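Students often ask what a 'structure token' actually looks like in practice. Rather than answer in the abstract, let us consider UPF0145 protein GCM10007315_04770, a protein of 106 residues. Its sequence is given first.
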Amino acid sequence: MIITTTNTVEGKTITAYHGLVAGETIMGANVFKDLFAGIRNIVGGRSGTYEQVFKDARAQALSEMESGARALGANAVVGVSINYGAIGASDGMLMVSATGTAVTLG
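Now compare that with the structural description of the same chain:
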């Protein structure tokens, strides 16, 4: 399945629109990740732990969106937007949402 942030796919024609599809995921970081990220914040450098949480959350949201598109009979999703947010007590949870338009490409 083609998933793209553009509204068209070069060399392809959109033959049918199936509607909006979305995928959402909410992930929490445990206390140990928070502790090590806090230390990393003090000494500097990248936080591989949090980077992996972001990557996993994004992959899950995109996978859920793709599944929704397949269920509608689409073979592509165009105009994809990925949004991130912090929610919950003390913003302790990461929310990732992916939305796009399910289409059939000819």
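One point worth highlighting: The two ends are 13 Å apart (CA to CA). Ask yourself how you might have guessed this from the sequence alone, and why that guess would often be unreliable.
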